[in-house]
Design a protein that fits this description.
Layout lengths: L1 H40 L3 H5 L13 H7 L4 H31 L6 H13 L4 H10 L17 H11 L4 H9 L4 H12 L1 H17 L2 H6 L9 H14 L23 H30 L8
Protein name: Sugar ABC transporter permease
Keywords: Cell membrane, Membrane, Transmembrane, Transmembrane helix, Transport
Family: Belongs to the binding-protein-dependent transport system permease family.
């Protein structure tokens, strides 16, 4: 009896200890690539080529970041990316939620065919060239709005939000109608606030996609430097660095002395610095949305 009682007390301790050690190892494995990237970004370029950089820089330097910001276009591109991300996220969330609410109403007779049409756009695309001519015919080339209009509605996000709206009790909406509220008022006062978890999740997806996008800037606005985005500028910098790979060192664009190894960067070091610069803004936003993000991921997982 004493043995079984002792074993019963020991099992929770063993499980908690194993669980703690396992989670610590999992966190370390997850964080290591990013910590290593930060270490490489602060390490001297020529020394990085030797390898062996793990969690701490061996030869400290800020030259990699100076090379990024020395072009003079990064700050303007950063503002364009911020404006694009904020506007795209707000419009996508609001318009997609309105569409999802409309298609969730059983009394709307066209809800099924319109839903099918949106789903088909997820599987079939006209391709790059027809899209380019469409953007051209809409007079959106070399315009800031080319970043906004094509991303205002997302079929996948609409389906996710519509699924979440389906979990809202119909009696709640009926009560609002009895009180005299119209569809738009119900949407703004009832549906939109209750969808906050899923909207925060979708907002994070949309913001990350808009922030990381560079190909549309390359296709549609490459002739307008004032419309260049941060990711596109970093991509150009990385491409120029990689093209100079035959030279063991790469200039930072401000007349560096090539005889000074401390003042030089390499493709590996500049790539790490670019990764940090591009990811830090999104990492600063994520903690504020984490609680909603976890809830939003469970959309549709439980049916009653």
């Amino acid at each position: 009896m004493k043995k079984s009682l002792g074993t019963g007390r020991l099992e929770p301790i063993l499980f908690t200890s194993f669980n703690t050690v396992f989670m610590i190892c999992l966190v370390l494995v997850t964080l290591y690539p990013f910590i290593n990237t930060i270490a490489v970004s602060f390490n001297e370029g020529n020394d990085t080529i030797r390898g062996g950089i793990y969690l701490w820089p061996r030869e400290w330097t800020f030259q990699n970041y100076k090379a990024i910001f020395a072009t003079g276009t990064i700050f303007d591109a950063f503002l364009v990316s911020v404006a694009r991300t904020v506007i795209s996220t707000i419009l996508n969330i609001f318009l997609t939620t309105m569409l999802a609410y409309t298609l969730s109403r059983r009394e709307y007779v066209f809800r099924q065919p319109i839903t099918v049409i949106f789903v088909l756009t997820m599987y079939f695309s006209a391709g790059l060239i027809p899209n380019y001519f469409l953007i051209k015919d809409l007079h959106l080339l070399n315009s800031f709005w080319v970043y906004i209009f094509p991303s205002m509605i997302s079929a996948f996000n609409m389906i996710v939000i519509r699924t979440y709206i389906g979990t809202i009790p119909e009696s709640l909406l009926e009560s609002a109608k009895i009180d005299g509220a119209g569809d738009f008022k119900i949407f703004m006062r009832v549906v939109f606030p209750l969808c906050k978890p899923v909207l925060a999740t979708i907002a994070l997806f949309v913001a990350v996609g808009a922030w990381n996008s560079w190909f549309d800037a390359f296709i549609y606005t490459s002739s307008r430097q004032n419309l260049s985005t941060l990711q596109y500028e970093l991509m150009k910098l990385l491409s120029s660095t990689m093209n100079s790979n035959s030279n063991p060192t790469v200039q930072n664009g401000v007349g560096m002395d090539q005889n000074s190894a401390r003042a030089m960067v390499t493709p590996l070091s500049i790539r790490a610095a670019i990764t940090v610069v591009a990811s830090v803004p999104i990492l600063m936003v994520y903690p504020f949305m984490q609680k909603y993000f976890v809830v939003g991921l469970n959309v549709g997982s439980v049916k009653e």
